[in-house]
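Input for the complex:
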Amino acid sequence: MRAAVIQFPGSNCDRDMVVALNAVAGNEKTQLVWHKETSLPEGLDLVAIPGGFSFGDYLRCGAIAARSPIARALVQFAERGGYVLGVCNGFQVLTETGLLPGALMRNANLKYICKPVPLVVQTTDSDFTRAYEAGQTVTVPIAHHDGNYNADAGTLARLNGDDRVAFRYGDNPNGSAEDIAGVLSANRRVLGMMPHPERASEPAHGGTDGAALFKSLAGAMALA
Amino acid sequence: MKARVHVMLKNGVLDPQGEAVRHALGTLGFDGVEGVRQGKVIELDLAETDAARAEATVKDMCEKLLANTVIESYSVEIA
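Predicted:
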């Protein structure tokens, strides 16, 4: 697998994501790509959008990043069938680009929440979640102020009907519609999620429940 | 000319910040506040001198960046 991680001013989980992609998903050398680039490196399988506070969350979380020069290349990459993983601020960026439906609003209790939370795996029918079991409860940390997933009733029905909800919260921390913590694109190759699998991928993190996501990706790329 | 954009959460989208403001007003003794919606105002100084063209351009800005039309509505005033 060839992977890259995009860096925006204010990204702060970019290096964690590189470590997870290298150490857990078995990449030899995950590249970092600066937001002012207008193209992605050739031959990539996966692009990850890391957590953080891109552009200081000005205007709306992820809004400025989604209009940065690299974002156009990212959208084209996804439309060609490339794999894209957006975590936390990365999920917000993906909804702002329109690659994923819905929007992330201020947490219902207005608080920044940073803690491990239970997630229920909703589907194993994706190259991000194949190494989990459907219905399995895993523990992955969240760290966000704006993770309250919102979409209209028609969008929620479509996500449910097409089995595109990847994860739901076991105990909804932020007011998200239908407890949604992560969603897939229609082609199942773009995943956005608020919890941080890269922060639960090695024993030293205190938990390894996020590792299966990176192992799923590694397995999918090995078969491709 | 100047343009002023109002961005609000759409009707039907729960506004947690507005709700918090409403509760705080109640705590201060302002009774009878039945609802609070919080939005933002964005002012733009434009080189454009034609009001109709300015309005069309600012609406395009709203669609592409200033508002997230999944959850927000906007209105444009040209002055």
